[in-house]
Amino acid sequence: MRSDEVMRLGPVIAVVVIKDAGQAEPLARALAAGGIKAVEITLRSPAALEAIRRAVDAVPEAVVGAGTVLSPRDLQAVTDAGAAFAVSPGATPSLLDAARGGAVPLLPGVASATELMVALERGYDRFKLFPAEAVGGRSLLKGLAGPFAEARFCPTGGITRDNAQSYLDLPNVLCVGGSWVAPEAMMAAADWEGIERLAREASTGLRAGD
Fold it and tell me: How many Å separate Cα 151 from the centre of its chain?
């Protein structure tokens, strides 16, 4: 699966931090049942790799990826865990080069025109804008649209249910990354029905363009 295909699975890629690998299966099921197929499990906890393995094995209807991939070593680890895609908050030359020859597509993070140009030179044209709100949000994306017409983005960082559609309305945005569909408090309480409801609200209430 290519990055473009992942970004077109729906208007929202769920971005989650899983501290207990036992949460992976019910969380992925709840999100998928609510219409959110793409799940980015970030490498921000010791349980992340095991969580990816469990979600991949138990919930085939979900497209499970890995976030916070910082190095070629991280990329290899998430590949071995079965991730369908990888997402990085930024992009080093070594990571970009490793991913170009790897089995798992990388959605590299960018925050400026210069970073975008470096990745474009290496053949990438699908990106994560991060941290979206902090680096200029919609204004930056509008500014990038002219000189980088081929680039498409998944803004992440500061995206909420209230501002998500304003990003999705931009022609160079294919989807957004959102953590609001799986709040930490709901996960801790095992409120999978509540998460399914939030996922359904997002998947049916938001509209992706392009």
Answer: 16
Tell me if the bond preceding 131 is cis, omega within 30° of 0: yes
CB atoms within 10 A of CB 5: 14
**Closest-CA residue to 121 (of 131, 139, 108, 102):** 108
Q: What is the pLDDT of residues 81-118, one digit of tens each?
A: 999 999 999 999 999 999 998 899 999 999 999 999 99
pLDDT for 174 beyond 70: yes
CA distances from 44 to 69, 116, 183 (A): 10, 25, 15
- Report the pLDDT value the prediction gives residue 1, as an integer from 0 to 100: 84
Q: Rounded to two decimals, what is the model's pTM?
A: 0.96
Domain extent for 39: 3-185
Question: Token pair of 63, please?
Answer: 């497209």
| Residue 125 within any structural domain of the chain | yes
CB atoms within 10 A of CB 121: 10
196 in any annotated domain: no
CATH code of the domain containing 153: 3.20.20.70
Confidence of residue 167 (pLDDT cuts 50, 70, 90): very high
Q: Is residue 194 part of a domain?
A: no
Q: Which residues are catalytic?
A: 40, 128
Number of domains in the chain: 1
134 exposed, middle or buried (CB, 10 Å; 0-12, 13-18, 19+)? Answer: exposed
